[in-house]
Each structure stands twice: as structure tokens, then as C-alpha cells.
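Every protein is a chain of amino acids, and every chain bends into a shape of its own. Below is the pair of lines this work produces for a single protein:
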Amino acid sequence: MRLKRILFPVDFSQQCLDFGPYVAGVVRRFDAELTLLHAVDTVPLAYYGIYPAMSLAADYEEAMSEGRKEKLDAFLSAEFDDLRVKRVTQMGDAATVVAKYADSHGMDLIMMPTHGYGPFRRLLLGSVAAKVLHDTDCLVWTGVHHEQAALPKEPVFRNILCCVDVAPESLPLLRSAAAIAAELGGELRLVHAIPAIEAATEFSRRALGASEVMYDAGQAEIEKLQREAGTTAQLCLETGKVAKVMRSAALRHHADLVIIGRGQINDTLGGLRTNTYAVIRESPCPVLSISAGPRREPQLAGDALAIQECLDRR
């Protein structure tokens, strides 16, 4: 898997500054072309009042765009000096600009930090990151969602984890993860979370037996997937919620990268991306998420995303 065009959305935040040297290291590993993209928010005409709105808004956008372009040209110039870099500014909503640019310019990968602000940062992804994850089919490589986490300027990928399910849809993910691990020169391990079974005391023995059956079944199904994919990665099986199991495995194996699949928000509320968001929030290392397939426009997409955030906070 060759990643030759990498997109780095820049908002000039501290998280973006801290993430930049790590992005440069990944770009060097793939010998890729890097595009820095900054979205300049447009100002509602009502902000200027009724009569002078048109002329003032146009003047503001032109001045703001020029100022941001100069700032982008100077952004981490030393860190990116040896790379093939394009610097682009566009007007519009940040998430929309990023997703559209990635799709229309054939980007192979989007690299971006996650934000989330205030006392509940640990519970939320930034709105831009969440929308980009939802709106593009491109690979998305997110930074660590912890303020204290420091990423290396020259990243090394010795240990790579991939979260897999027993469904047939995990086969393309498994093949992609194996290709990425081979490209990065890391050892790939698979992680599968077995749902915990909650049972009353009198049914504990039966519940324990059911857990053993699910463990054996999960192992057998993933071995079958590996035979189809032609991989022989070690398998880590653990009972619990996906995000918690992934975090535990990543810490235990000193993971440098976690690879997951992004589902789709389909009819009604099926396939909400709770696991994707939760894994990114909980992971002690960066996360590379791979879309499960061509994006399908959901009904009431905005409402579904809002409901998903509420579910994540529970």
C-alpha cells in the first residue's frame, strides 16, 4: 500500500504545531507529497448589518485569506524544508473543505490531531475530526487524544495493532493492515474484543460457559479470515468493550500505531461510529482508520452524528 499524497489540515493550534513534526516523519517514511490545507471561515453577512454587508464581507474575506496564506507559508517551515510541500488556503467550513479537497485531489491519507475542548475533552472528539471521519472515504491518521502525550519527531513503527471483528467485512481491513505494517516495517498483531456477558449469580456458570464458547468461536473465525487474507499475525483475545480492550492491548504491547475500520452510518441509526470515536479517544498511540467502503449518504446525518456524540458521552 503506497501512500503518496498526504493531506495535513492546519488550524495553527498548539495540537497542530505539536503534531506537525510527527507528520513530517510519516511523510518521509512513505516518500510522499505533503499538502498543508488551511480553511478560512467565512463571516455571515448579517455580522456587518444590512447595507454595507456585501462590500465589507468581501473585503474581510480577501484580507483574512491573504493573512492566513502568509501564516501558512511560514508554518513549520524548518520541519518541512526537505519535503515536497504544497500549501493551500480555501474559504469555507473546515471539515467540509478538508473532506472535499481530499476526495477531489485524490489524497491517500489525511493526518490530523483531535481536539475537543474544555473539562470534557477526554469524552469528545473535536467536531472537525468527527466530521472528517464521517464525510470522507480517505484513510485518516489521528494523533493521540491526550494533552500530555508527546509524539516522536522520527516515528518508529515496531508494533502495530489492528482491531478486527469476526464479520467478513474485516477481510479488506486485515489485508490493508498487513500491507501497511509491511510498508512501515512493523510487526502486526490482531486484537478482537469479545463482548462481556453479564449474568445473575444463579446463571454465572452458564454465562461462563457461553464466554468460553464465544472465545473459541472468535478465535476460529479470525483464523479463517487470516487464511483467506494470507496473514499469520498473532491474535490477542480479551473480554470487554472494544475501546478498553484496544487500549489495554496497546499498552501491553507498546503499540506505535493502532489500525481500525470505520463503519458507515446507514439506515436509521445502524452502524453508529461509537467504537471508532471511542478507540481514538482511548488509544495511547496514534490511530489509522480505514473506511469500510464507499460512503453512503445517511438520512438525517446531522441528527445521527449528534445522537452518536450523546451516546459516546454516556
